[in-house]
From TrEMBL:
Its main location: membrane. This is Uracil permease. It is found in: Membrane. It comes from Flavonifractor plautii 1_3_50AFAA. GO terms for molecular function: nucleobase transmembrane transporter activity.
Length: 466
């Protein structure tokens, strides 16, 4: 397939046409898009009392992304960052206080939680084997656009409250970030039009530094007034430092126990559905059917083994990042080499505690402003997935499936928790929505979707793209 690559007009499929300096900057934009959310996972897990390392998290986000690209024949422009789906599992393991867990040190609990993540990643490989055995078309009969479209929509909608919460810490700064992104994307020319997210972080950050020097304040989650920026962690951090699994291998390597596996592994159900939704979103964005070429089985293997590898050495589960899909939408640069540059940056920066602290000094409001755009883009891609596949909502079957998915995804905000093996397993709202949608699609008669078929064939009229 031949792709045009005129900057600012057509999508760019080969970033080498822009030159190396611009490619390096584009990779930096993807780094900024994933950094806040990826680092937030270990910060939250540390709040549960488990010492999950930020450096380890960054290292395996980069290594996992590079491994994913190798598995997918260097074709899919996806970045693998920390998965939020497993936060409930970390919290549950941290709270275990019976049997061997009663007197267990938090660092050892983390090792057992990571053992569960290793098993969860292997479940991806099992699904990939099923797809390879029976074919993607038979599997995708259970995952048509009427199921995946609403799930993609829910991914963005579920993240939306986080964007509002972050932005509310300092609304004027969040609005500045939004304004910079919109202005760069709509009215920008050349390179400016391609890097709106990076500009939406850097320009407000410089403004925030000046405002902080003049005494500007923000509001934290408890409603207390705090300084707009805090550089104390930057001053205390060492410029260079090794990840914990290098300095204390025995204390970082995963351990395995049935209880922790039963807590962590079932979360893979939600994560796999999120993966399929993200692959659908990236395919819709780029205009390539990555579910068919290089194949869903390859993307699942790449994501699953990357997750298991991270868990084995004390890191969190990985997942394909919707934030970076949003960057693809805005920049219209679809070359996977740019994403691999971001992965290399992540690996290099994982050796610098000082840099991690510096990026962490970005005000929460700026992250909120960027998230306003990126999270909304994810939901909009879900709508696009439904529209471009001509899902017929005059068919009551399709209407019922979409309705149940959306209500489950928005209604079960806290998920469903039930006891398994002496612990509690939580199915997130996305997992519930996915299971409900897949089940209804399998049970209800009247399937009108065939994977890989021409959706325009047999249509009596075409009102164009809208």
């Amino acid at each position: 397939m031949s792709h045009k690559s005129t900057p600012g007009s057509e999508p760019i499929y080969d970033a080498r046409t822009l030159g190396l300096p611009k490619m390096l900057v584009l990779g930096l934009q993807h780094l900024f898009a994933m950094f806040g959310a990826t680092v937030l996972v270990p910060i939250l897990v540390q709040g549960y009392g488990l010492p999950l390392s930020i450096q380890t998290t960054l290292f395996f986000a980069g290594i996992g992304t590079l491994f994913f690209h190798i598995c997918t024949r260097l074709k899919v422009p996806a970045f693998l960052g920390s998965s939020f789906a497993y936060l409930g599992g970390f919290s549950a393991v941290a709270a275990l206080d019976s049997g061997a867990y009663a007197t267990m040190e938090p660092s050892v609990k983390l090792q057992y939680a990571c053992g569960g993540i290793v098993v969860a990643g292997l479940l991806y490989v099992i699904l990939a084997a099923v797809i390879k055995l029976v074919g993607v078309k038979k599997v995708m009969r259970f995952l048509p656009p009427v199921v995946t479209g609403p799930i993609i929509i829910l991914i963005g909608l579920n993240l939306a409250p986080n964007a509002v919460s972050n932005a509310s810490s300092c609304w004027w700064l969040a609005l500045l970030s939004i304004a910079v992104i919109v202005a760069a994307n709509i009215w920008g020319k050349g390179m400016v039009k391609i890097i709106p997210i990076l500009l939406g972080v850097v320009i407000p950050y410089l403004v925030a530094v000046a405002a902080n020097a003049l005494g500007a304040t923000a509001v934290d989650a408890s409603g207390s007034v705090i300084p707009l920026m805090d550089f104390s962690a930057v001053a205390a951090a060492a410029p260079i430092g090794l990840q914990p699994f290098f300095t204390d291998f025995t204390g970082s390597i995963a351990r395995f126990d049935v209880t922790s596996i039963l807590v962590m592994a079932p979360i893979a159900v939600a994560a796999m559905m999120e993966h399929i939704g993200d692959m659908s979103a990236i395919s819709a964005t780029v205009g390539e059917n990555f579910l068919e070429r290089p194949g869903l089985h390859r993307t699942l293997i790449g994501d699953g083994i990357a997750t298991s590898l991270a868990g084995l050495f004390g890191g969190p589960a990985n997942t394909t990042y919707g934030e970076n899909t949003g960057v693809l939408v805005l920049s219209r640069v679809y070359d996977p080499k740019v994403v691999r540059l971001a992965a290399v940056y992540a690996v290099v920066l994982s050796f610098s505690p000082a840099f991690a602290a510096l990026v962490n000094s970005i005000p929460t409001a700026i992250i909120g402003g960027v998230s306003f755009i990126l999270y909304g883009m994810i939901s909009a891609i879900g709508v696009r997935n439904v529209v471009e596949n001509r899902v017929d909502f005059t068919n009551s079957r399709n209407l019922i499936i979409a309705a149940v998915i959306l209500v489950c995804g928005l209604g079960f905000s806290g998920g469903i928790t039930f006891p398994v093996g002496g612990a509690h397993v939580t199915l997130t709202n996305l997992a519930i929505a996915a299971i409900a949608g897949i089940a209804l699609n399998a049970i209800l008669p009247g399937k009108d979707y065939e994977f890989g078929s021409d959706v325009t064939e047999g249509r009596s009229g075409d009102f164009g793209r809208y």
